[in-house]
Amino acid sequence: IDMSTSNYTNDQLGYYVSNFRFAEGSSDKRSKLLTTGKLETSGILFATNSAEVKSDNEGTIKEVAAAMTENPDLKIKIIGHTDAIGKPDANLILSAKRAESVRDALVKNYKINADRMETEGKGSSAPVTDDKSEAGKTRNRRVEFVKI
After folding, report:
1. What is residue 24's predicted lDDT score, i.e. its pLDDT?
2. Whose C-alpha in 1, 15, 109, 140 is 20 to 30 A from the C-alpha of 62?
3. Chain CA centroid to CA 54, Å
4. Using N-to-C axis directions, what is the helix angle for 88-110 and 60-70, rounded to 10°?
5. Which has the minimum average pLDDT: 3-7, 29-33, 59-63, 134-138?
6. Are 116 and 70 in contact (CB under 8 A)?
7. pLDDT at 32
8. Is the Cα dihedral 95, 98, 99, 100 positive or negative?
């Protein structure tokens, strides 16, 4: 600021900021589980026809672990879902094993007591969309965390 044209000293001048916007962020997974009692994600990826967790690219397991660590009375049910590809009986077993794998990751990696978690597999019995596209299949292959 050119002080030669101002009647104010540097100490009297303030800083002004303009031309900024606030971006609306999404609520974190932890608060969603705690406030709504349910969290659903397609971001936990499993190996094909396997219960092995390949990745958790959204950090959902870590967020659920943090919620459970911060809230020692919190108990959850982990529900696994599959797409409709394959036999329904096999999908039911696979979805149950995937839910168990997520529970096991919470126990092993984050030291969450297994007694605080139940697991269930629903196979392809509760789709959120049709399986006609790859995007639909991906959305149906999901894990739910439900507060109990």
Report:
1. 44
2. 140
3. 15
4. 60
5. 3-7
6. no
7. 85
8. positive
| Half-sphere exposure at residue 138, Cβ-oriented, CA atoms within 13 angstroms | 7
> From CA 135, how far away is CA 36, in angstroms rounded?
26
- Residue 79 backbone phi and psi in degrees, to 5: -115, 125
Q: Edge to edge, what strands does the sheet with 38-41 contain?
A: 38-41, 143-147, 76-80, 117-121
Q: What is the pLDDT of residue 19?
A: 59
DSSP structure string for the chain:
--GGG-SS-TTT------S--PPPPPPPHHHHHHHHSEEEES-EEE-TTS--EEEETT-HHHHHHHHHHH-TT--EEEEE---SSS-HHHHHHHHHHHHHHHHHHHHHHH---GGGEEEEE-TTSS-SS-SSSHHHHHHHS-EEEEE-
Spatial CA neighbour of 83 closest among 53, 118, 38, 42: 42
> For helices 29-36 and 60-70, what crossing angle results, to 10°?
60
84 vs 132: CA distance, rounded Å: 10
Average pLDDT value for residue range 119-148? 91
**Residue 26, pLDDT score:** 43
pLDDT reported for residue 136: 85
